[in-house]
């Protein structure tokens, strides 16, 4: 089976490996090299690096809407195109090229969290579970019928980065299962997504990372988890801008103005919120690395210690 794989970030790499194990990946599509790092030199995507290491030809068109790009894809004679976090829109003409269509590995239980940031939005919303879907692509945004899915609970302290890594591996397994069923002629009939329960996972914006102390502590704690490792929540604490890498919500009453530092000790830094208290446990100063709340307090002798 001739497979064309399209993907760009780390999340797609396990799926590329699964596709390479179960079929002949004749080409990999990924986004063009982008400036990265302090020197802003051009850097290859994680998917490109994996493809090059495996000796798989790599194509990096700016768009797939042009006739030349579509002729190039058609010349590959793919039986199937697998798309995982590619980052480019596939027009109808492209969707029609592979003999078995185009499949997408998506990190949510569709129709919940269609769109760009399903992992982070699921944590931020307080969802008890999430998962991965193997979907047959159509022209709409993540609207296609589902072939296979696998659910998983979201841990009470699981971060966006931790859930990302778990779902990347789960997605690769679901893809491998689907490819195996396709080879055996046992692929289930895709089921259409219901109209009820549709939500959209809008792209993350760094402006969202600023914590609003007027919000409930439980909501802020979920945001801290969801935005770790990017874009990382931030707030002003005792007059200092900090990035917040770890925090928990406390169901504690207080009569203080939201944003007030209530206590500071080895267990953390307690900040009054619109409802409850947010305990900061891992923070980062400007220009520094992530440190425990206790280490931050050692550098802030001006603050009263609670223990």
From TrEMBL:
Residues 203-300 form the Formyl transferase C-terminal domain. It catalyses: L-methionyl-tRNA(fMet) + (6R)-10-formyltetrahydrofolate = N-formyl-L-methionyl-tRNA(fMet) + (6S)-5,6,7,8-tetrahydrofolate + H(+). It is an enzyme of class 2 (transferase). Residues 1-176 form the Formyl transferase N-terminal domain. GO terms for molecular function: methionyl-tRNA formyltransferase activity. Its EC number is 2.1.2.9. The keyword Manganese does not apply. Keywords: Protein biosynthesis, Transferase. GO terms for cellular component: cytosol. InterPro entries: Fmt, Formyl_trans_C, Formyl_trans_C_sf, Formyl_transf_N, Formyl_transf_N_sf, Formyl_transferase-like_C_sf, GART_AS, Met-tRNA-FMT_C. (6S)-5,6,7,8-tetrahydrofolate binds at residues 108-111. Attaches a formyl group to the free amino group of methionyl-tRNA(fMet). The formyl group appears to play a dual role in the initiator identity of N-formylmethionyl-tRNA by promoting its recognition by IF2 and preventing the misappropriation of this tRNA by the elongation apparatus. Belongs to the Fmt family. This is Methionyl-tRNA formyltransferase. It comes from Pseudoxanthomonas suwonensis. The lineage of its organism: Bacteria, Pseudomonadati, Pseudomonadota, Gammaproteobacteria, Lysobacterales.
């Amino acid at each position: 089976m001739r497979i064309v794989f399209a993907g760009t970030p780390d999340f797609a790499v396990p799926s590329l490996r699964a596709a390479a194990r179960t079929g002949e990946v004749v080409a990999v599509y990924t986004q063009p090299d982008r400036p990265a790092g302090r020197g802003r030199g051009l850097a290859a995507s994680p998917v490109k690096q994996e493809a090059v290491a495996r000796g798989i030809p790599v194509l990096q068109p700016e768009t797939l809407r042009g006739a030349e790009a579509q002729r190039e894809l058609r010349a590959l004679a793919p039986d199937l195109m697998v798309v995982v976090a590619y980052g480019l829109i596939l027009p109808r003409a492209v969707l029609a090229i592979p003999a078995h269509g185009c499949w997408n590995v998506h990190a949510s239980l569709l129709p919940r969290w269609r769109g760009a940031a399903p992992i982070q939005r699921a944590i931020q919303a307080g969802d008890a579970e999430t998962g991965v879907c193997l979907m047959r692509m159509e022209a709409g945004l993540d609207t296609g019928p589902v072939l296979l899915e696998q659910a998983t609970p979201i841990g009470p302290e699981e971060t966006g980065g931790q859930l990302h890594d778990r779902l990347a591996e789960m997605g690769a397994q679901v893809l491998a299962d689907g490819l195996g069923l396709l080879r055996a002629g046992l692929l289930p009939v895709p089921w259409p997504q219901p109209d009820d329960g549709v939500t959209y996972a809008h792209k993350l914006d760094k402006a969202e990372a600023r914590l609003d102390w007027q919000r409930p502590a439980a909501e802020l704690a979920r945001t801290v988890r969801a935005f770790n490792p990017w874009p990382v929540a931030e707030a002003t604490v005792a007059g200092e801008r900090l990035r917040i890498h770890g925090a928990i919500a406390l169901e504690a009453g207080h009569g203080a103005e939201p944003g007030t530092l209530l206590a500071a000790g080895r267990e953390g830094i307690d900040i009054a919120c619109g409802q409850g208290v947010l305990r900061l446990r891992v923070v980062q100063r400007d220009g520094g690395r992530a440190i425990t709340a206790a280490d931050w307090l050692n550098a802030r002798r001006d603050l009263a210690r609670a223990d």
